[in-house]
Amino acid sequence: MTIQELRKLYDAQPFRPFDMYLADGRKIPVKHPEFAALSPRGDTVVVYQTDGSFDIVDLFLITTLRVNGRKPLRGRRSRTDRRR
Length: 84
Description:
Layout: H1 3-10, E1 18-22, E2 27-30, E3 36-38, E4 44-48, E5 54-58, E6 62-67, H2 79-83
Antiparallel strand pairs: 1-2, 1-6, 3-4, 4-5
C-alpha cells in the first residue's frame, strides 16, 4: 500500500468511511478523517475508535482499503430501464 492511496481516501470530499485490511487478517475501520493521523514520514497511521482505543499501523502491513457504504448512483439504470 502506498501513502498516496491512503491519502486519496483520507482526503476525499465528501469523506466516506473505509476499512483497512491488514496482513494478519484484522480489519480496522476509519469512521471519520479526524479519527486518523498519518505520520509525517508516511510510514504509519494511527486510527482512533469511538471507545477511545487506537491502533498504530505500519503502512506496509495494509493489504486492502475498502470504502464502506453504497456506491454512487450515477450511471445506474432506472427501474423502468431494467424491465426492457
